[in-house]
Design a protein that fits this description.
Layout lengths: L2 E5 L4 H14 L3 E5 L5 H5 L11 E3 L4 H13 L2 E4 L8 H6 L3 E5 L9 H17 L4 E5 L4 H6 L8 E3 L12 H6 L5 E5 L8 H13 L5 E5 L5 H10 L6 E5 L3 H10 L2 E4 L9 H8 L3 E5 L5 H4 L7 E3 L4 H12 L2 H17 L3 H16 L17
Parallel strand pairs: 1-2, 1-4, 2-3, 4-5, 5-6, 6-7, 8-9, 8-11, 9-10, 11-12, 12-13
Length: about 375
């Protein structure tokens, strides 16, 4: 089987899956990068260093572009992420098996009917008449968003982003070594990530007499405002802003923290820090609006979910964790197992091949466990 993954640029969100796929089918796998990585992303530590042998950079020359078109047209399966339609035009005419790879498309509610109508005509012209185009949902809300336009009904499958998954020799020891009642928040300091929610939680916790530490990792336009919030509420002794740092340093802080707060709103298409914090054995409290949360978290089993924007509910769930050390540790361990046993690159690569074979044989997905490649409704 020849499988091609085409997207804007190759980064740590796709590298683990790509390496897993390459280990399964060797030269039958290729990743097509359609544009150079943006400087902003490089500044965030996204540069991959040496390119893997399966990566083809279409923008290096016209010959490279033509080679990418050839590889796409000859592939048995194509995963199409953020890629110009000209790369897929001939493949669409041939009606060959193709998976659109997408987060939710309606992140902002403004002018919703106009946006739905625009997408209705776009997708019906492009994909609806093609029986061999399916949707890989990198958001729990993607299937519903596309269904509003009348496409991919019954043809959408659970997917996501698959960053590196660490496997610890003794995860119980890792969890036991975490700093007691340590809370972590990680993201860019921008509006829709809602870092201020974590500081509001800290204020309530302190006023209620709790002993804890909250660390925020990230940089952005809200930094000065957040520092003022910390000072105005006399939280300097328990809330610390650590600035931006490379991904490997972020993981170290996750491994040392018991509780992870994920406070983004519906603009968070997926949110790979949820994968990473769960993999690090954190007890997570996440907004239900985050694209990855409904796929990855089973309420009360491997994490906790609160209603988007409801800081009181968020605070009550954090208090519940602080009051119950065993619960923190149990949720953290189950979160870790969710990543190592289910939502990881190796499992995703194997399941995608099985899904593609099933579809090619006129069948539907063989996976009914609610995990990777099961039906997304």
């Amino acid at each position: 089987m020849k499988i091609v993954f085409a997207s804007n640029y190759y980064n740590h969100h796709q590298s683990s899956f790509s390496e897993a796929m390459y280990s399964l089918i060797g030269d039958g796998y290729a990743f097509i990068e359609t544009m150079p990585i943006e400087q902003e992303r490089i500044n965030m530590g996204w540069r991959m260093g040496e390119y893997s042998p399966f990566v083809i950079r279409s923008y290096l020359s016209y010959e490279a572009y033509k080679e990418c078109i050839r590889v796409i047209n000859e592939a048995d399966v194509v995963i199409a992420g953020s890629v110009p339609e000209k790369f897929l035009r001939e493949r669409m005419k041939q009606k060959k098996l193709t998976f659109r790879y997408s987060e939710r498309i309606y992140k902002v509610a403004k002018h919703m009917m106009i946006r739905i109508l625009w997408h209705f005509f776009k997708f019906h012209y492009r994909d609806h008449s093609n029986p061999n185009v399916y949707l890989l949902c990198a958001s729990a809300y993607a299937a519903g968003d596309y269904a509003k336009t009348g496409v991919f009904k019954g043809k959408a499958y659970k997917w996501g982003y698959f960053p590196e998954v660490k496997r610890y020799e003794n995860v119980d020891s890792v969890i036991a070594a975490k700093r007691p009642v340590s809370i972590l928040w990680v993201a860019r300091l921008i509006g829709w990530k809602h870092p201020e929610a974590s500081i509001r939680v800290a204020k309530i916790l302190k006023d209620s007499g709790y002993t804890f530490e909250l660390n925020l990792i990230g940089s952005g336009e809200l930094e000065n405002e957040l520092r003022r919030m910390i000072a105005d509420n006399s939280l300097e002794n328990c809330v610390h802003m650590l600035g931006a740092m490379p991904p490997e340093k972020v993981r170290e802080h996750m491994e040392q923290s018991e509780i992870f707060l994920f406070t983004s709103d519906r603009n968070e298409g997926w949110g790979a820090v949820l994968n990473e914090s769960m993999n690090s054995g954190c007890a997570v409290v996440a907004s239900n609006a985050i694209g990855s949360a409904p796929f990855l978290i089973e309420e009360g089993k491997n994490g906790l979910v609160y209603r988007d924007g409801n800081v009181d509910e968020l605070t009550e769930k954090v208090k519940m964790l602080i009051n119950n050390r065993d619960m923190r540790r149990e949720l953290g361990k189950r979160a870790y197992l969710t990543m190592t046993e289910q939502w990881n690159a190796e499992n995703a690569a194997k399941r995608l091949i099985e899904l593609a074979n099933a579809i090619s044989s006129g069948k539907d997905t063989p996976f009914t466990d609610g995990g990777v490649c099961s039906k997304a409704e």
